Amino acid sequence: MLLWRGKREGRGPVFLEVEPCDGEKLPRIKVLMAGNRGRGRASFTFNIEAIGFARGEKLPDVVLKPPPLYPDTDYKPVPLKAGEAEEYMLALKQEFRATMRRTPYFMDTEEEKQEIERYSKRYLKSYKDDDLEWVPDWRRLPREMMPRKKHTKGPKCQRAKSTAKVSTLISTVDVLKKIEDLEKKGDEEKSDEETDEKEGGKGKRKDDDGEDDEAADDQEEYDEEEQEEENDYINSYFEDGDDFGAESDDNMDEATY
Amino acid sequence: MTQAEIKLCSLLLQEHFGEIVDKIGTHLIRTGGQPLRVIVHDTGTSLDQVKKALCVLIQHNLVTYQIHKRGIVEYEAHCSRILRILRYPRYIYTAKTLYSDTGELIVEELLLNGKMTMSAVVKKVADRLTETMEDGKTMDYSEVSSTFGRLADTHFVQRCPFVPDPTDSADAQPPPPAPTLSINEKDMYLVPKLNLIGKGKRRRSSDDDAAGEPKPKRPKQTAESKEPIPDDGIYWQANLDRFHQHFRDQSIVSAVANRMDQTSSEIVRTMLRMSEITTSSCAPFTQPLSSNEIFRSLPVGYNISKQVLDQYLTLLADDPLEFVGKSGDSGGGMYVINLHKALASLAMATLESIVQERFGSRCARIFRLVLRKKHLEQKQVEDFAMIPAKEAKDMLYKLLSENLISLQEIPKTPDHAPSRTFYLYTVNSLSAARMLLRRCYKSIANLIERRQFETKENKRLLEKSQRVEAILASMQATGAEEAQLQEIEEMITAPERQQLESLKRNVNKLDASEIQVDETIFVLESYAESTMKRA
Lengths: 257, 535
Fold this sequence. Notes:
The structure holds 2 protein chains of 2 kinds. Chain A is 44% helix and 7% strand. The termini of chain A are far apart. By secondary structure, chain A is mainly alpha-helical. Chain A has a domain at 81-107 and 120-133. Chain A has a 3-stranded antiparallel beta sheet with strand order 1-2-3, with no helix packed on it. The longest helix of chain A is centred in the middle third of the chain and has 31 residues, at 155-185. Chain B is mostly helical. Chain B folds into 5 domains: 3-77, Orthogonal Bundle (Arc Repressor Mutant, subunit A), CATH 1.10.10.10; 80-148 and 180-200 and 233-238, Winged helix-like DNA-binding domain superfamily/Winged helix DNA-binding domain (Arc Repressor Mutant, subunit A); 241-337, Winged helix-like DNA-binding domain superfamily/Winged helix DNA-binding domain (Arc Repressor Mutant, subunit A); 342-427, Winged helix-like DNA-binding domain superfamily/Winged helix DNA-binding domain (Arc Repressor Mutant, subunit A, Orthogonal Bundle), CATH 1.10.10.10; 437-474 and 492-527. In chain B, the strands form 4 sheets. A 3-stranded antiparallel beta sheet of chain B has the order 1-3-2. Chain B has a 3-stranded antiparallel beta sheet with strand order 4-6-5. In chain B, strands 7-9-8 form a 3-stranded antiparallel beta sheet. In chain B, strand 8 and strand 9 (334-337) form a beta hairpin. Chain B is globular and about 85 Å long. The interface between A and B is large, with 46 and 66 residues. Chain A: It is found in: Nucleus. Chain A: It holds the Pfam family RNA_pol_3_Rpc31.
């Protein structure tokens, strides 16, 4: 491999070459001279020491791959400062972060409303201070920031809301009833799948409700009709909503006889 | 805005304000000033959420708006202000050291809420202080107000720009799409004359009380807020520049103390205190102070004679560090503090220490050599550093590959022949400082990511421990036996406890590292700013 090509004073060109890498012996430097070989000593137009390595010296290994992603460090880092001030600042930092999460400024992505209260969430306190709803000072903000009421769908909007409320109540009760019905049939695994699908379907429908009022109107009316048709008899039979979960087990035992 | 800065801003916003604000804030940093509709369209979030997020960001001084022609309002995010969130603990701690707990809580409330009126701050702080005090004692509003006044006098808190009062002529025109906020220099620290009488209230724990009790409280609260607030519209915010000035002064004083002795550091501290209000934060020198003035303003405990003071000042002025300079002879000698030079020395010391810790003391010697001598040839480096040629070459190339040292070509002939060109090694301080600054941002981003990863890994365990604590608390409140409490505590097994311990240790270590990397960021940023303002 050719490293450098220079000119000797008054003579022909000089080539500085590196032997190809064998893998066994390390490459060395050879000075090849085209033209007058061997006659007299070679002298260069520049100070050979300026290159940084002398003739016949060992060069470092040829690197054949990119540097590693996590190279080994020869020098380990110095330990962290540890004192009263540092500990206090650490405590301040963690408290600040925790407090920020509780303020009304923290906007989390809203989770889907769960129909059945899960035990795992039961004891996790919800830390949001609900009574500190923040209202910005509208005089300091551009006018377009103020929330505007939608004027287009006035009475329709109200109807959709009320039907949404009713339908969620009915659909919650409906889901629980469906679970109980399917368990009665004795098909446990299948019922889980079905209820999951139904829950997912109901959940999806509820999301649609929030976004598009008009489409939801039609859907909700259809749902209501369907539910009323199917469960006409059962609706009047089971009227208690609160004690429903508690009683269902007992009823199941009786019903299998 | 470098990629590292944007990533760090995004992580900070996500941790403190939530996902939605993070998405919108990051989008604004990337794209610059944007009107509302474009933001809604580009980020794909609903209009209501974008509005709410922008309100939150404007409240915390992270985003400002401007009216452009044709009445379009553009919103712009300030990346550097978002990065200040890292420094909040340091600000709060400084307020604590200067103004004790009251000052600490005032600054904390202001940072938590962005901007607040003075009466709101005083009320909240008094309530918080009352809760920590013993039963029966309460915190008076007047005490909190006086601390607030002191904070305003020393410029640690300042007024926000406000909407000028509408005059008659403005009524004729239609109101503008957005108010233009402005503030006078002299109004910035004027404390309104409020007559705040009252004491802090203790918040009654209403966890297990009858449901009837909280309800009458709530209508009372809303009724209180309907009363006209005397200082309505006058909002205060924390003055971060003043805190930065304080940190800078602190580091200069400690540098002098390390180099010389306690007395000289006290003298420098006095000089800096005297020039606090008179010098702007970005001036390269303080105002010249005469030796007589300094003698008069020395703290009371120091009994050094005028002669000794003069000797110290001469010593400081002759020091090669050049922190203090002599600018004249009137009044017993006029002395200035060389702020820019001091910041540069601090930044260079940081750089040298980084090179030493990363590459070893020999590399550090070479680096310091090239820094002092400005330009050196390879042969000269080997000679001056007294390091064998091969090793010196190796180290120089290592530093070169890390971009801490650069090559300067000086051709002897117009054809730039390599054999006839000088190659000089040099350190470009500003670019090296900037490169390390970028690296600091990246490392903090990595630290935050790792901390979030660790927390997510152990989320189930954390939730379990939270639940156990909640159960314990509720049981203790209803009065349970020792045996039952023991049983509940054993719900967390010993190896789980160990896991929780090690998680807590790791998270603490990562948090502490973030705070310390932020100190380096402060030094390097101040140096970069000071150099830019000078040039």
